[in-house]
Amino acid sequence: MGSGNEILDMYIYETGTLLEQLETIVLEAEKADTFSQENVNEIFRIMHTIKGSSAMMEFDTLATVAHRIEDMFFIIREGTMSVVHEEDRPALFDVVFQSIDFFRNEVDKVETGEPLDKDIDNFLSNINTLIAKIKGETVPDAPPAPAAGGAPVLQAPPPVAGSASFPHALRVNFEEGCGMESLRAFMLVTAVRDVCSEADFIFEPANVENDPSTSETVVEQGFHMMFRNVQDRDNAITVIKAAGSVQDYQPYDCPEPEAKPAQAVPESPVVDHADAAPMMRAVAAPAAAQQQQQQHPKETLISVNLSKLDLLSAVVGEIVITESMVTSSPDLKGLNLDAFSKSARQLRKLTDELQDVSMSLRMVPVSGTFQKMNRIVRDMTKKLNRPAKLTLIGENTEVDKTIVDSIGDPIMHMIRNSMDHGIEETQEERVAAGKDPVGEIILSARDTGSEVIIEIIDDGRGVNDEAVLAKAIRQGIANPDVEYSHREILNFLLAPGFSTNVEVTEFSGRGVGMDVVKRGVEELGGTVSISSELGRGMTTTIRIPLTMAIMDGMEVAVGDSIFTIPINNILSTMKVAAKDVIHDSSSGEIIKCQGNFYPIVRAKDLYQLQDGFTAIEDGVLLWLEAGDYSYCLFVDELLGQQQVVVKQLPAYVNSYNIKSYGINGCTLRSDGSISLILDVASLYSAARGV
Question: Do 347 and 388 fall within a single domain?
């Protein structure tokens, strides 16, 4: 039995998906300065679906706006894009973009429980004016369409129910007490449209899409669908078998859909939905094979609440820890247990596979987030009158769903920075610099196996080091007596509060709020770095883990304390003698690695531990790298590589800003003890006081 919350969640999810599809269509169409006939048909279908589902949910304003946009594209569909004059096309694109924004804002309110905007008169007036222009009229000839009741204003009514043109019928009964039967019937119609032309079937009650009162009729008399030919009905049966909340269905041949099923001549017995799956496996007739071939691909996908995946990841993590505890139990030491060892190896293999499967369920491509940036560039191009294009690379790169949802804001901020402050203000300025008149921003992603690297590259002005340093000195972030390197100056852009109290146009414009980007990425366990060449552009590199739940780590010991370091941050390990260490008055201890010199950070001193080696030759150096930081960490010994489950630190611990000291979480070891997980970048910052 479905609950109201489940239906609302379904509405929010499906509307959001449709709006993403719509935005992609319109962005591409605007570049071509026209809608293809396929585009027009798809937009009409999307608006028709949003109108019907919004009306069923009694979101009247959303249904009304969708209705008018649907009406507009009905005109275009019937007359092709030739009915839209060249001078009206920018307004057409703008109106559709405005409708997307309207729907998104209102759906956000639905999600947060806020009241919907009732004042849509101005927006409707804009739509109606455009419709009038398309129709060749001077003013709209009809008031805004009602949110519910009746077919679209500009659509002809469907054929009369019971027409001999639609002799092949189906009666569908929904599960008792499932609720919202009219909405479920309309969703069934929408699904059938994917496998059957809209002109080849009708349904009764005909107004289920915008009249909730028809639920009672559907409960009492069933929901009837009538088709022109048997093949379409067979295709519809395939859809019905896969639909939710369907109790049973019955095919019959009768021009009168009102006829009771008992009076009809059945072609096949009533099929109980619970037995549908075994039946489908048993059928081997050619017609069944055709149905299977024509089954819509989306039926192989299901939507799963993210909280369930979170719970699955947590349980799998506990299984991994428990398996390690059992197989590494001190009670087993000294025992010759060949059968147990064999079973333990098999158990480890299965738990590894279980981890991989549970992680893969959470992995989604970054394409959805990347595609949204097209809209940012499009809007800012118009607002600033600054032609630019966005190039996307590696859209199919996959990361954890939680990370995808969180990375959107940092990327959006950097894209806006590139548009607002990176790309030159005039095409003449770009041409004078030997560049293409149209600026370019490249947004790319690539998977290294342990992390995803996202780059935002623009070919704009670049960063003016002198201006940035002067600003940093005035704000008290930099010391006027210190000589800073190019990299250190760029890092000022990520400093909290940098350039927030001055006009952003005073220099190349970088840095306003970029500490928000850094903070947001670091909360995901990632790092941000900047590179730039004056006059040639700027690159922001974001490195984030594939998942925040499980990672490969190297366990190290410092006295009695155990720490875990992410494997992807370790370049190499080495034993050195005291004579190999260089002592510098300003930088402290330094070691030479592959021709370069790197500072040494002692974990014992940083965390003020009582135990642990002091002599450099007694311990081990780990050469670490994270973002712009590369250094060597001195520890007592390496305990071995482990796949660990990342546990977040309790809120009361985080309140002490412990993350700024290089501690990013913790994990349980096989013996039940706790190991702190180190963040390589912030650990170096803490050690050096930067």
Answer: no
pLDDT digits (tens, 9 = 90+) for 551-601: 788 999 999 999 999 888 898 999 988 888 888 777 788 988 888 888 999
User: What is the average per-residue pLDDT within 296-315?
Assistant: 72
Compute the CA torsion angle 80, 83, 87, 93 (nearest 10 deg): -50
> Are 402 and 527 found together in one domain?
yes
Closest CA to 420 of 380, 370, 467: 380
- Partnered with residue 583 across adjacent β-strands are 589
Given 295, 315, 332, which residue is the final one in a domain?
A: 295
Which range of residues forms the domain containing residue 357? 307-364
Write the DSSP symbol of residue 266.
Answer: B
Structure tokens at 558: 């410092």
Contacts for 677 with CB less than 8 Å, ≥ 6 apart: 553, 563, 564, 565, 566, 644, 646, 663, 664, 665, 666, 667
Shared domain for 377 and 504, answered yes or no, is yes
Contact of 229 with 200, CB cutoff 8 Å: yes
Q: What are phi and psi of 688, to 5 degrees?
A: -95, -5
On whether residue 155 sits in a domain, the answer given is no
What's the CATH code of the domain at 607? 2.40.50.180
Rounded distance, CA 57 to CA 98, Å?
22
The answer to whether residues 651 and 544 touch, using CB atoms and an 8 Å cutoff, is no
pTM (global) more than 0.85: no
The whole-angstrom separation of Cα 35 and Cα 29 is 5
Residues 6 or more apart whose Cβ sits within 8 Å of residue 600: 581, 588, 589, 590, 591, 616, 621, 631, 632, 633, 634
Tokens representing 265 are 């001549």
> Which residues, in sequence order, are CB contacts of 175 under 8 Å at separation 6+?
1, 245, 246, 247, 273
Q: What is the DSSP string of 289-326?
A: HHHHHHS-GGGG-----HHHHHHHHHHHHHHHHHHHHH
H or E segment and range at residue 27: helix 4-32
Whether residue 104 is found in the same domain as residue 235: no
| 111 and 247 share one domain | no
Determine the Cα–Cα distance for residues 362 and 402; give it in Å rounded to an integer. Answer: 8
pLDDT tens column, 431-487:
999 999 999 999 999 887 767 889 999 999 998 888 888 888 888 888 888 888 888
